[in-house]
Amino acid sequence: MFRSKTVWDSGALVTWSSDDVSFEDNFATWNPYYGMEVGMTRWISDKTKAPQGQATKGPLDPPGEKMNIEEMILGYTINGAKQLGIDAEKGSIEAGKDADFLVFDKDLLTAEHAGFSHIKPADVYFSGKKVN
Length: 132
Prior knowledge:
This protein is an alpha+beta fold. The protein has one domain. Helix content is about 25%, strand content about 5%. Helix 2 runs antiparallel to helix 3. The longest helix has 10 residues. The chain is globular, with a radius of gyration of 15 Å.
C-alpha cells in the first residue's frame, strides 16, 4: 500500500513480507499471495482473500506505484535471501542451491491480479523432496 515502486525503481534492494501479526484473522495477511495481489493492484477488493472489513474503496493513488508480478516474485525470493546473506543457498533455483521450491497449477506470470491472494501451491519441495 506504500509507494514501493518509487523505492524499487531507485535501485534499492526491496524485500516483501507482512508486519501484520494478528492471530484473529486466521493468518490471511501473512499469505505472500495476498501481499502480491495488494502490491500489483494497490487495493483490497471483494476478490481479495482478506479479513472482513479490510477492503479499500478502490486503488490507492498514485496508480504508477503498482508493482508487476516479476518484481513481487523477486521481492519474496532472491531479494530476501540477499538481504539475509543466504543467497548462495536460497532464493532462486540454481545448481548447488537447496532446491526449496513451489509448483503451481497456473502460471503466476499471467494470472489475474485481482483475486491473486487465493492462489495456493500445488506442490511444495524442501531440499528437493516433496513435502505435501
